[in-house]
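Researcher: Structure prediction, please.
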Amino acid sequence: MPASRGLRVKCMAEADPQPKDSSTPSTQSTTPLSPPPPPAPKKVSTKFGDVFAFSGPAPETINGRLAMLGFVSAVGVELASGKDLFSQLGSGGVPLFVGSAVLFTVASLIPMFKGVSKESKSEAIMSVEAEMLNGRFAMLGLIAMALTEYLKGGPLIS
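Model: Predicted structure follows.
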């Protein structure tokens, strides 16, 4: 067994991007450094398979928006007419919801196929996270409303 082994260190110093100015400090300009440029926006795929993939932007966005529309509509009609969710669907609510669903789906898909991401349009209050959370709660709300009205045998709001 050797008593000691040599240690090799390799230094990989980067070259200075700006050459040093040989002028004296009193003649140097005191301009502040400019901030680095913002990162380039992430390229969004506009392929049909990518948009509609399980982890793509379309499924949860469209389902969440339709659930929000359905939940608010169901509660509104129930308050106005006293009909439960199943009575609403049985008395002509299906064609109205299908028409609205097609309209919302097309309106949601147009920006996605143009390559516009939801994140680029996100603001403080109207954020992507808020829309996703509201959509998920609306999905749960519709299921809970339908289940409760089925078990109760009538409208949730009387």
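Model: The helical segments are 48-51, 57-81, 85-113, 128-152.
Researcher: Thanks, that helps.
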